[in-house]
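User: Show me an example of a complex going from sequences to structure tokens.

Assistant: Sure. Here are the input components:
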Amino acid sequence: MNVSEIFEKFSYGPAPEATDNIDKWLKSHKRKFGHFINGEFTTPSQKLITSKNPATGKALAKVSIASAKDIDLAVDSAQAAFKAWQAQSGHQRARVLYALARIIQKHARALAVLETMDNGKPIRESRDNDIPLVIRHFYHHAGWAQVLDEEFPDHQAHGVVGQIIPWNFPLLMMAWKIAPALAAGNTIVIKPAEFTSLTALYFAHLCQLAGVPKGVINIVTGEGETGQALVKHPKIAKIAFTGSTDVGREIRRVSAKSDKALTLELGGKSPFIVFEDADLDSAIEGLVDAIWFNQGQVCCAGSRLLVQESIKDRFYKKLKKRMAKLRLGDPLDKAIDMGSLIAPIQKQRIEKMLTEGLKTGGTKWQPKFDVPSEGCYLAPTLITDIEPSSPLAQEEIFGPILVAMAFRTPDDAVALANNTRYGLAASIWSENINVALDLAPRIKAGVIWINSTNQFDAACGFGGYRESGFGREGGREGMMAYLKPKFLDKLKTLAPQTAATVKSYAPNDALDETPKLYMAGKQARPDGGYSMPVVSSKGIQLGEVGEGSRKDIRNAVQAAEKNKAWAKSTAHLRAQVIYYIAENLEKRSSEFIGRIRAQTDCKQDKAEQELALSIERLFAAAAMADKFDGQIHSPPSRQLVAAMREPIGIVGVVAPQDNPLLGTITMAAPLLAMGNQVVLVPSDIHPLAATDLYQIFDTSDVPAGAISIITGEHGALGKTLAEHRAVDGLWYFGNPTHLADVKAASAGNLKQFWSHEGKAMPWRQLKVMNNRELLEHATEVKNIWVPYGA
Amino acid sequence: MNTSNPNISDDQRNPGMSLDLEIIEHVTANRSAIERRASSYGARRSVKKQWQVAWLLRAITFIDLTTLSGDDSADRVRRLCAKAKNPVRRETLEALGAVNLPIRPGAVCVYHHFVETAVEALQGSSIPVAAVSTGFPSGLAPRDTKLMEIEASVKAGAKEIDIVIERHQVFSHDWQGLYQFIKECRDACGDAHLKTILGVGDLGTLKNVAKASQVAMMAGSDFIKTSTGKEASNATLPVSLTMVRMIRDYYERTGYKIGFKPAGGISDAKTALLYLIMMKEELGLEWLNPEMFRFGASSLLNDLERQLEHCATGYYSAGYEHPLV
């Protein structure tokens, strides 16, 4: 086209980004790569994967598939490097992270071009979003390395961490994994996704330049099997995974057999809520950033549009007009909005989902423009007239497909928003701060963007609720995922205890009492109608308690779901109630001391100590109810990011077998203090101290639904709690025999899981197993982004 | 074609409408989100090579070549008009293959005092003369003299009148008063086109900018314009996007297209291209002609020339190589 024609048509032309430097780099490696182990590239293996440019289908390079031997080498190298790396001062580690940040900055354009070639995302996004965030992540975490001891006292690195990352943001996800792990003093074996290993291998070279000590970062390439081998590797102390919920669930199951720490960042079906008083034109642009960013291949993509009924038609009209303006094409072109999907298989998967899904209803709309015939392109798609029951509204599509529904009221919006198994992110558009800030805490999601979307920063935690996973990346909360309390290493193995054989019966001169179960603020008979004996350590049968079954767990959870008073109460009130429990407990101290002694046959002073510590635990939890709050993060943009600590929700607890009173209180008090609702299974062999608490609760203004106590067997009840989809978290500190089973069962809804990992916890050392640690586990952090500007 | 109302032809002027306070009440403008979108044009679009040449040439046709200084003189105005008639050196145009393209600025914009001078200097060129009016730049002259000023400029040959609003009417939400004033100006203009300057740098919030835009369009403005160039801040992309969205809204509701004129602070080719991208993305090609879009600028022309020269020769040119604006 000549100047005169363009002058007439006012059209856009091609604006390609040059690839010469990258082609040169690929050639210098003969387009074939080994792994990066112990600071060196290994010889490319016999088994190779071809990494293609999805926009053209052309091969870029071949990368090696790691064998079990390669993984062993990488893990061994990481383990060998761990001691020295951990022993370095925070300052020394900070210097390495700082050097990485600087050197990535110097190679920013090369990395952006390579990322776009390998992944198909627009060069604009890799250049303006991915790589700048990578750099920022390393700078930010250089800071955490520097101040680690000061900011995280009594914490240390896990050891060798295994990290598995996805293909949608290859280098960015790598930075999110590597930077905090290094800052905390861990060493790393990381596996990039099979489609996108090239920027990781370029990064390996930068590690050499930045002077990262050998073995601290190891990069192995390969397919799913390589990842599996990593997950199962006995020398890996922690697994961090970002990817699909299905794979995350499998990792939870597989790792349940070990004591590996685990964080998962999984899928989503995030709502994008538009109120009638929103700046609608801006909300439309927000949607473009939400669902047509990276071709919709974003775990937190705003893929479910919820728009207020009164503006529905107007909004859809605006949206369609905007969609028609999107430019789709060569990702290396600087003037396009959407590039290529990652691979033909993904395109086929999405198209199949669409065809299948539309059979149940829904109207599909796509702008009429030419989609390039070569490469994996998919036009932006809007689906209206769809019901929440449609698979398209329920399942993660992971493509440029937006489904839209209308809502009537704020409550309706919340109900629709939460009508999903996921809970990663949400976007809320309203010019009324009252409405926006009312919704933010009510939506079950780890990240809330008000009048914005897809905002990320190294200082702000990112991660999900529900089946979107657990753990956070970024900020203080993200650092916690790569640290553990130092005392854990000193603990002894916990031996399971079994009830003693009955040798005699306690004199039954008093009125017979059989403690029932406790739920909805009342005692209830066990559904099965059975009781089980309580036998002291010396073999005296003290009486009987109800034998809880899976139906009792169901009833207790139902009671918690129905009675939300505790979850809605203020922190001040919760503190008052917990203090009141302490007060009433102390009034009946001799009775409880007697109970402890009768069951455990311990000495008087030990029983007295258990009671005193229980009261102190209650005080400590009550003290922090209104103090263990969040913080305001400071991203480099004009907004407040409120990191709120929220209760997990309904939390199942299996209390320890020993310390019958203190164990129960240690678990229940911090959970209750933070507003969780607790379904607790007390010690199976010494349950009477817990059942005596019923009367204490009744006289301490504990509202119905705050806590239920179900006596019974740890394995069965623990498993029922673990499997229950409405139970949001599970603390398993019971009989260690059942730990692996219960943990694996928690994979169902990927609930938060915390346990003793088969170790004897220091229940009586309040300063070791400290209040803050308990409260951390009793909460999850929600980051609410609030941009401002008059 | 008019996609909003097929009964309205493209050259039909905006007759205005009755003041609709409901619409003004519900206007929204979220600053952070608007800034985010405004900052994306340069990242999302890029024009290179012959596209860049064509776009730069088009940019020239949108310029209201302006001189509005206390030290303006007849000679200064004549020099500006001469430049308007020959905005780009012929050698450059030849090298770019653009000799036959209609490249001349949208108008020459002066104070009333120099309207006749400009009309005379531009004779035979078909470049219209625009006059700033109504007590420019503060807009605080007596109402009668303001209307008389418009009539006098029209009589002197101005085809376009750039009026300024009284900003206090925005602060006090005296929409009725503002509407009435602009309507009177429109009547005083007769056939001359009315551009309403909002003085956005004075208005404090984007919401005020959006509301004032709506009132100005309802009152019958042919164009809405950001600034006099004399406020502390002038045209910016966020402010422009806010106004352009209101133009789109007005068009969708009434079928009438209102022109947009960012003014002040647009002095280089790169910034000018961002505005063109914004117009193309937000309003489309129908707005990318001098009837619907203008830059209020003067030194911009020099930079456009320099960039064109670079495109033509491959080397960077010096400012002194191009005739003064």
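The lines above are the inputs; the final block is the predicted structure for all two components together. Chain B touches chain A through 39 residues (CB under 8 Å).
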